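Consider the following assembly input.
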Amino acid sequence: MAMELSDANLQTLTEYLKKTLDPDPAIRRPAEKFLESVEGNQNYPLLLLTLLEKSQDNVIKVCASVTFKNYIKRNWRIVEDEPNKICEADRVAIKANIVHLMLSSPEQIQKQLSDAISIIGREDFPQKWPDLLTEMVNRFQSGDFHVINGVLRTAHSLFKRYRHEFKSNELWTEIKLVLDAFALPLTNLFKATIELCSTHSNDASALRILFSSLILISKLFYSLNFQDLPEFFEDNMETWMNNFHTLLTLDNKLLQTDDEEEAGLLELLKSQICDNAALYAQKYDEEFQRYLPRFVTAIWNLLVTTGQEVKYDLLVSNAIQFLASVCERPHYKNLFEDQNTLTSICEKVIVPNMEFRAADEEAFEDNSEEYIRRDLEGSDIDTRRRAACDLVRGLCKFFEGPVTGIFSGYVNSMLQEYAKNPSVNWKHKDAAIYLVTSLASKAQTQKHGITQANELVNLTEFFVSHILPDLKSANVNEFPVLKADGIKYIMIFRNQVPKEHLLVSIPLLINHLQAESIVVHTYAAHALERLFTMRGPNNATLFTAAEIAPFVEILLTNLFKALTLPGSSENEYIMKAIMRSFSLLQEAIIPYIPTLITQLTQKLLAVSKNPSKPHFNHYMFEAICLSIRITCKANPAAVVNFEEALFLVFTEILQNDVQEFIPYVFQVMSLLLETHKNDIPSSYMALFPHLLQPVLWERTGNIPALVRLLQAFLERGSNTIASAAADKIPGLLGVFQKLIASKANDHQGFYLLNSIIEHMPPESVDQYRKQIFILLFQRLQSSRTTKFLKSFLVFINLYCIKYGALALQEIFDGIQPKMFGMVLEKIIIPEIQKVSGYVEKKICAVGITKLLTECPPMMDTEYTKLWTPLLQSLIGLFELPEDDTIPDEEHFIDIEDTPGYQTAFSQLAFAGKKEHDPVGQMVNNPKVHLAQSLHKLSTACPGRVPSMVSTSLNAEALQYLQGYLQEASVTLL
Amino acid sequence: MLTGAPEGRLRKFKYRGKDTAVRRQQRIAVSLELRKAKKDEQALKRRNITPLFPDPASEQQTKAVAINLTLQEIINGVNASDPDLCFQATQAARKMLSRERNPPLKLIIEAGLIPRLVEFLKSSLHPCLQFEAAWALTNIASGTSEQTRAVVEGGAIQPLVELLSSPHMTVCEQAVWALGNIAGDGPEFRDIVISSNVIPQLRALISSTTPITFLRNITWTLSNLCRNKNPYPCERAVKQMLPVLSRLLQHQDSEVLSDACWALSYLTDGCNDRIGQVVDIGVLPRLVELMTSSELNVLTPSLRTVGNVVTGTDHQTQVAIDAGMLSVLPQLLMHPKASIQKEAAWALSNVAAGPCQHIQQLIACGMLPPLVALLKNGEFKVQKEAVWTVANFTTGGTVDQLIQLVRSGVLEPLVNLLTIQDPKIVLIILDIISFILQAADVLSEKENLCLLIEELGGLDRIEALQLHENRQVARTALNIIENHFCEEEENGVTLPALDQDPEFLKRLAKKD
């Protein structure tokens, strides 16, 4: 359907766009829905483009550009087997106009269109958009740097993927094409821009634009040089590197900014140049060698002259990283080895950048989440401190002795400074601890397993004399930074500090859970969590529940209290520590469960209003599961109490469709349901029909949890379902049908089907059986994947076990004559080796044994010729390594690649169920079982089995078989 | 040039032990190169250049006859009927084409001189004219493909081949050279030259009295007849050339040796059947000997050839090992030139792709310490090959061999390389780490190994890689973290301990 490019339509569209900006969801949502409903129409994108170009209302222009970009993002890609969502004429028209439109638009719109171009480019460039490059390059001539920057920005978004994609013919063909068309004009533009910079060196606004260009050009240089050193750039290295070098040393007052936080253009450009130099030094050493010393000097000078302000952080860390990567290369060792050089690096580059700055202090207090993430989780890759640490490690490669010597002097003098006047000089101690931490972890790597000190410092001694005193101080709120340092020290060296010292620190850590500082109480929780996971000998936890027992009450109280401290109401570290404490303490927490579960449900209720911290939520559900498990292990009847406490909240979550929580709720319910020993409670049965609603199954994230829950229903309530909810069986099979149609979810479909086969009374599914098999065959024909095949093999063998070998043969041959033989010959015999998993293999072994020994047609029809091959393949299943080959075309089947991928399933470890072995009671040792079954068969028809075995089984298999017979102490008659 | 096709190589990760045929990394002719062509490769075509300062004696000799002519004078002269004029003009043209800088190849072709030059090749009464014409054509053929094509389409091949039996050795030598340039252009012309029955004639020119410069030319031309794939030279031609090359390989002259080795390197750069033909003539011991040559131009192609051979079957690799390649490789891994290190590491990576017996020999020959040294300090391109070697080693080695690998200190440099700006290599290292962890898991040694990796700073890096923009890298990193570095949330059930191997633990801990 096409929409006309009429004024009326433009008007309507404007109205709806306006409504999408309305704060009232009652107005906004319908408008959004409407737009989505018409976006499939021809000309829709062109209407948007017209609006963003011609609308009188600037807000509408921007809104149209954003809507356009999102439309492109959702629809441009043509997904195999799915309809093309944008008609060809619109595609052509968009590509013909968008570059021009982008370049002539104001910046806000330009950015949106530039993004759209790169999305389109990702799909269409270069083959389906051949003139894009020429069109862009031609604009370089325009002399208008607004236009040029637009082009450069677009080029950057198109080319930056060269930085992270794997080499492939396709990729390199594209890069070659880009190089041919782009490298020379870019180089000329680079030179021209630099010249313009000197002619305009007194014109601040011109300089700003020109420097923006230089930044983009330098970024493009990085992308184009990433995969390999292109011939063009090797030939023009002189030009690029000389200019880069000049730019590194350049300063211009006009470009300096007053802002302390935000990096200015000069800083951005220089840090990109550092990256470029580092790339060359790392990858194209041979060619870059002669430029390198100059860059080392320039970057060095840069570091010495650059201030402590935050705006220089990226530049400084990139610059230090460059030095760090160079100094550990043997042939550049000489650039650093002079003692004065080393001292000066330590003094002027490393120490200043390890200092705790005003900005760090601010972050510590006001932006603690960010501070913690940087400091604790190693997402400090771009920080000065991290870079300085890396430089220390790099230097230690060749100069460990001198470097350690220089730094131990520093550590001592800083500690002395601190001792003189702690309240003024506490930052010195912080720096000392930081130095020890960074240097000691280096020594650790060299002396693996040695818990003693390195040359710099004795770790345990340092702990006792400098860390413990801070933590023992009565005031948990004094010198919070030093407290955090101390707690972090415990975490880092927990494997080196002896257990008795750690044990001493546990009550101290529990005490610090009360600290006001978010960083301090978070670190305390995290440290406890880490300590509780440590392993001692025999793989048991290092700390036993008994050792922690004296602190249980205060530990649990402080942990939950910490969740009420300002800023920590959804603190994932605290919640994880709660979970870990439960897991370590086990029965010891039972007396506290009533209060704990109340607090947890309240928390759950509160966060379900607006779930925002996925980790916090995950650990909270884990903690709930642990409470249930631990309590019900001792007293299964207590499950009712949990249901009372939880179901109200669960109902609310389900009713309000809190998507993030639904998979969790289903898992907890599975756990609760499985805890019931008797028949399924009616409260669950009331829920059953709702679980079959298609809408729940639309969300990929729900599927595993829902299947798990349905399995629990089938396991506990199959008779109730058969008697009281037989009308729901088609719905159940509908779910199965939907799941097996998908390559990503077919295994889930089989889980469900296997539970149905295993638990449902046979007569209740009788009428559907044939249809089930037909569906499976259809899928096998339309897309036969290894994963499907493996599940299919397990299923038919389970069916054989449950309903008998004859029933299996009959159902196949009932679909089509001789089909059973075909399945044996084309699927079971050749593919059985692919089955993986202990229980799965066992099911197949028992099923095949049945086919061999309890299926009369196998003995006296045309199927008889398959008897020995089937036996042979069964012995193969027992003895040969698993066949884990996957055909080439299946490589890229991936759950995450399926369209419509939504929230990943978050599996709760503590809601986990034990692996279920449906043949566990029946068969213990499948090999012996085979021997016994063969023996039984041979007594029924004496003489036949030995002859079938000895005439066509291969010698090796025969030998194995004799082994089984011996083990079972039977013979074949 | 050494271009790994990582996709093909990586395959072997996934199909470990499945198909030994695809386990080895062939040198794949990638038409796609972003880089400059390598300087240490053999020249495709060569121009015969007149020295800038020719020795005065010969200068005087020729001064009398050939003054510098303009292009128009040359055209007139060449088209004249007087053989002397023709000679003068041809010589003047040849001189132009032989000058060091900017030889006017294009102008001469556009002037339409080729047909006449080809005609002069046939004037057996005037060997000097034949010589000058052959030289001029040699230099034209040394140009671009288009220029070579002009020579071929001018009908030069047949008369040049006939000149191979000229009684005048200089004429004959120049014809060899010209044919070499034509054949060097690519498979199409190479096969035309071959089908002109040139090989037996070249073979006949080789004797113990052949002057060394002439012999060098013949060898070079032969090497061009072996060169290029898609398609390869026909089987028959190869069979004719192999004994000759084998003989040339016994020579002492380094240029002859170099080109003979290059020829063999081309012939081995292909499927196992092709490799087999070379292996069967028994040249491997000599090639391995040449790998110890101090001449780079001999070392490079002999190493290349042996490297190619070990991309072949296990048997072919075994022959190379038996010839002693593994005892030469350690010193080459430590060679001052990075390109040699890289080539040696590449050869090693293919030995490591073999059965565990080969891996055992590799260990026995002391290959692990230099391998680790390369991973630590090599140039990036060398490190890359070394990483491949470790990858192959890990997938094919026995548990015991893996222990030796870990003990040799391979993890530290691997972990450091996780910051390299090359997603493919990062992915392979992640796969290696994951593989070693799995093996350690079987030995119940995972925790120690995890600790080691964490202490090396590996955990930090792997965690950071979870945010890598390349999804495969990010996912692999995530899997490692999830499978190996997440605390097991044991459900109150302790898993039965697998067979403990306390030895492994001690050996790991003792890492020096």
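Chain A touches chain B through 55 residues (CB under 8 Å). Ask yourself how this observation constrains the way the partners meet.
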